[in-house]
Amino acid sequence: MSKLLSSGVVQGAGFLVGCVVFWEVVVRVLGVREFLFPAPTTVIAEIASYPKFFLTNALYTLMVTALGFAIALSLGVLLAIGIVYSRFLENTLYSLLVALNSIPKVALAPLFVIWLGTEIAPKIAVAVTIAIFAIVVDTVLGLRSVDPETLNMARAARANEWQILRKIRFPSALPSLFAGMKVAISFALVGALVGEFVAGNKGLGHAILLAQGQFDTPRVFAAILILGVMGTALFYLVDVIERYVLPWHVSHRGTRKAM
Amino acid sequence: MQPIVEVQKVAKVYGAPGAGFEALRAIDLDVRPQEFLSIVGPSGCGKSTLLKCIAGLEAVTGGAIKVRGEQVVGPPSAMGIVFQRDLLLDWRTVLENVLIISEFRGTRVAELEKKAAELLVRFGLGDFQNRFPWELSGGMRQRAAICRAILDNPELLLMDEPFGALDAMTRDDLNLELARLWQETRKTVVFITHGIQEAVFLSDRVAMMARNPGRIVDVFDIDLPRPRTLEMRDSPEFAAIVHRIRDRFADIGAIRKE
Q1: Is residue A95 part of a domain?
Q2: Closest to A61 measured CA to CA, from A100, A10, A53
Q3: Could you tell me if residue A12 is inside a domain?
């Protein structure tokens, strides 16, 4: 198993390195101009020359993403529970949510600036708006997909609704919730970036916008590279937490037994 | 002696009255304290529906069901139930699965933890109490489900085709264990099955159901000596009773006559 895994990692990393080398060679051989398409080494050099600039902006974007994700997660789970338990909330809130989701949420970003100013609040708001839908939909699905016979088992033992939610519905919804979280964490990053595009003077989104204005393409690429690394890391962070929280789930049983 | 379960003229119709599906019609059945009663019938005869009505998990549409003299409106207290599937929760160990019932009841888990462990040992799961359900075989899982149902010593045990999904050998094994459990604890058991042999082997009485609509056709007294052994199934007395029930099923057209 570990042999297979490591060879998988080796393959993945090898392919990535190959792509980067190809990119470097093509740029050098064809003499592509830096402001059109900088070589990987140029991009890395850009980050290395201004580490503090990239670090502070990346941390800011990371903070917006994390806060947006955390709010989307807690609010989303609460909404989902409400929707599952109340026909009224299902008819009203759930329908509203579905309707709102069909609006491109990026279009709401300028509104949030009008309402919440140009500091961190509107950026978090965009991140929450984009991320929350996946959480709500997947949690509702998970809470509803409980085996009816299992509910009968609990009811026959005279369990109350709160006990059923805590001990049966919620744990069995966790795999679904984690699926939603994996989508939501990436969406939260997109939301944070959009928020930074629209207003303010902090974050990688702002850095990209500023650099673009100055045709500083290596800096744009550097920010994109960092965003890519951040997005990947956040996704795998959720994945690792999932493995830790759900060792019992079908998809992780193989790895658990190997230990 | 007052029956522990009284089923009086129970009807169950799904859908609109008159136009709906008649699952149960005019069911009359008393379950006496400490008796092992099986309900046997072909699939679709409403035997599981009847059990769910007794358990208070489904409402009747006519007649009444009383448990210990009280009308059933929801699941009665001091009742354990074993379903066809074990319904163990994947995220709990075997021991935690057994203990979930006590958590629902609000009784102190710590007190029952020892008892749960003892039960698991008794059912041959002593070494598996900290394993997860998916690490167990089907028979072991159903044993754990039985432990869960009897953890807080219910007076009434309802079993809905509990061994229906198991292979023949495991089934024999669990039949013996259930007979032994009944012998020791004398719980009142209502046992649903489509196996005539199994019903005769375990029961004091066997109620026979037919379908369209679901109704009780006959009730047989099983006068075989106790405790029962698997060898008993080869005895002429056993065969005679099984034969009588099978003939009755053939009479009503539920199974084909040879």
Answers
A1: yes
A2: A53
A3: no
Q: What is the ipTM of this complex?
A: 0.90
CB contact under 8 A, B83 and A159: no
> Which residue in chain B has the smallest CA separation from A160?
B104
Element (DSSP H or E) covering residue A111: helix A109-116
Using a 10 angstrom Cβ sphere, with 0-12 exposed, 13-18 middle and 19 or more buried, the burial of residue B168 is exposed
Task: Check which CATH number belongs to the domain holding A175 and give it.
Answer: 1.10.3720.10
DSSP-derived 3-state class of residue B20: coil
Q: Give the global pTM.
A: 0.83
Mind telling me how many Å the CA of A84 is from chain B's nearest CA?
21
Give the range of the structural domain holding residue A114, as residue numbers without chain letter: 43-253
**Rg, C-alpha atoms of chain B:** 18
CB contact under 8 A, B75 and A149: no
| pLDDT (tens digit per residue) in B110-153 | 778 888 999 999 999 999 999 999 999 999 999 999 999 999 88
Which architecture characterizes domain B1-77+187-258 according to CATH? Answer: 3-Layer(aba) Sandwich (3.40)
CA atoms lying within 13 Å on the CB side of residue B104: 29
**Structural domain count of chain A:** 1
- B220-254 residue pLDDT tens: 999 999 888 888 989 999 999 999 999 999 888 77
Amino acid letter, residue A123: K
